[in-house]
Amino acid sequence: MEIEKKYTIKQLPDNLEAYDHHDIEQAYLNTDPVVRIRKEDETYYLTYKGAGLMAREEYNLPLNRESYYHLRDKVDGNIITKRRYLIPLKTVGLTVELDVFEPPLAPLIIAEVEFPDLKRAADFIPPDWFLDDVTHDGRYHNSNLSK
Q1: What pLDDT, on the 0 to 100 scale, is given for residue 74?
Q2: Is the separation of the CB atoms in 133 and 8 below 8 Å?
Q3: How many other C-beta atoms lie within 10 A of the C-beta of residue 110?
Q4: How far apart are CA 123 and CA 19, in angstroms?
Q5: pLDDT at 69 over 90
């Protein structure tokens, strides 16, 4: 089960380049249900996501490089590229995944926070640099952004 909330941001955190990050490329073979392929640095996945906005089933299966590029030729919509910064929220023991999108989606920036359970998600108080909670706005889900 994946439980996550999504936010727009007011400003980028200071010293962004000091945080660990991953370069991500992802694309969608299907958007209902979501079937996605992802290249994260040099690791490849096929992901199935069930229905839902904040909480939904998610299954990741490993792919090799050849399988990823074979499937990449079959995707619908735009291939999404982004740099994901991992920013710890030490006071609450969580991590912000800050996605800085590249064209054609730039200058979009979305912060995601994953939670171990629904109560932690409901009780979460976002940091001051977050702006709007867009968790329940489907336009901000990557599967829709790929269209």
Answers
A1: 95
A2: no
A3: 21
A4: 26
A5: yes
Q: Is 96 exposed, middle or buried (0-12, 13-18, 19+ CB in 10 A)?
A: buried
- Options 7, 19, 28, 140, the catalytic residue: 28
Distance CA 96, CA 145 (A): 20
For 24-57, write each residue's pLDDT tens digit. 999 999 999 999 999 999 999 999 999 988 999 9
Does residue 28 carry a catalytic annotation? yes
Identify the architecture of domain 2-145 in CATH: Beta Barrel (2.40)
Question: Does the predicted TM-score (pTM) go above 0.85?
Answer: yes
Residue pair 75/147 in contact (Cβ under 8 Å)? The answer is: no
Q: So where are the chain's domains?
A: 2-145
